[in-house]
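Please predict the structure of the following assembly.
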Amino acid sequence: MANPLTRLFLDPVDSDRDQVARKFQLSGDYRWWAVPLGIGIACLALSLVGLGGDSQRFWYAYLVGWMFCVSIAVGALFFVMIHHIVKAHWNVTIRRIPEMLVANFPLLFLLGIPILLFGMHDLFHWTHADLYEVGGDHYDPILAGKQGFLNLPFFIVRVVLYFALWSYLGFRVYKLSVQQDTEPTEENTRKLRKLSAWGIPLCAVATSFASYDLLMSLDPHWFSTIFGVYFFAGSWLSSLAVLALIAMAFRRSGLLGNEITTEHYQDIGKYMFGFVVFWTYIAFSQYMLIWYGNLPEEIQWYADRFSNGWETFTWILVIGHFIIPFFLLLPKISKRVLPFFALMCVWILVMQWVDLFWLAMPTIVGEAAHTASAHAAEAGHAVAAGFDGVVGLADVSSSQQAGLRLVDFTAWFGMFGIFLGATFWRAGRHSLTPYNDPYFADAVRFENV
Amino acid sequence: MINSIKQKFAEHANQNVGLLAEFSDPGALVHAVKALRKRGYSRLDTFTPFPIHGMDRAMGLGTSLLGYLVFIGGLTGCALGFLLQWWTSAVAYPINISNKPLFAVEPSVPIIFELTILFSALTAVGGMLALNALPKPYNPLFFSDRFVRATDDGFFLHIQESDSQFDRASTAKALSEEGALAIEYVSHDGAEDVNPDA
């Protein structure tokens, strides 16, 4: 497998499957990766059919599905680096799973290129040239003021930089750890710790700005400085859910049963519980300040999410992303009974997707309303539009009402399928756990007091 | 009824009357606890300078009641915070501030949250003290000179005299067989060394 393309996008490290301990090899055949990958590609192809119908909806669905995978990889990267820097022992047996997830960044960039090439106009209102024509019908002084940051060349440069940084960090944490399987050395553990020391702060900045660019700027008038932390909280939560589910899939195939024990699942569950609360804390902090300030430029974002049926999704998030997981993850037993815990992980993943969907999709309504009022003005209904005050939110066409469409799901499953397929393909080429890590024995022995 | 309460108090007062054995290290102590439980002793307790992994399971301790108490405490704080916010701002002293609703959930959440935390934390501290029957100004174990080291480098196992298996001579012998370095009989009258071979 010296093919430079597979090296770049799938697995930067040569396969060492034949050299690692047999019991840590992924048993089973190509179906591990071929099934998710096949489903993913089929779903994505199905979504392309949607591109012909409503291109804007397609691109929003594509972006949400893509950001879902990006957020999982970002969360996994933080997970690995933070545990390196605090010299954590307990997580060593499960560490290879997030390591395999973070090696996905080049592939994710590849999947993001269509957005940069074809999707920008449909997705990002601020890319429309007529907004910046002084004296023109659509001139927008606020966006003109933001043009220094929100312009296409700089945007592309930034996105490339984020992915370059994530890919490099992901490549290093993956490669140094995989090397340790066949050439045991403590030097790599030391290197990983040093890498994490500068990696975490840079990655924090990159993640914040990536969330501003890729999600917050969908509604370019709105801003919230806490948005990056909000995205980070969801990322960490969804990456925990994915890594627990992958570990349980291995367990069902009779792999890592003695290495990843109920104690480890309980700890992942505790993390999930903590981050459910953290996500809520951040989400509420953002909401409360905007509610209290009640400034038109900020409150409109929440007004969009409390009208046209989007309020249903808002309440789904309050109940499903906080109240239900809070009470269900609270008792010890729910984290130790694995079938139930698996259900909670799936639930958390669905909620993370609803969260991203809720961040992105209602923006279409705002824009549709804007266009509708412009059309009304052109057609001589200026009085009606003006009288309505807030530009005719009630007039939005039924297609912009809140609701789920097939393309939302196909784009999501498509992205996630490809993401998982690539992850399992990598898993088949290396050991499933870093068994030559100096802390490995400690991690196997680990018990919750 | 009164008798049963009296008996409870007596049991509590005599909880630390019995044999106190010192062990060399945490491993030896865990081993001894397991072995003695296998021999049928149930009323035993351990005293160590730090928490020991696996000791809960070795002693057969169940889940602590504390978590449930804290949960109830938290819910109480939550409800009280809600009432406080609603009553002060909408009932007792309503003031219109920039035409916001007199009572709204949004600005009340921080207060509700903080009261939840406060009540949970106080319940945790108070409940821990109550369940451990602390503070305890008098404890017969203080008669033992060795016992001071339970907060430094001593690992102790205690078997209550009220244990159904308890017999001063045979229990001492059992403790010594499981590796006790020194054995003392501690009662309200004082502590005295016990020779297991006698």
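Chain B touches chain A at residues 51, 53-54, 56, 63, 71, 106-107, 109-110 (CB under 8 Å). Strands of chain B lie at 18-23, 44-47, 155-160, 182-187, 190-193.
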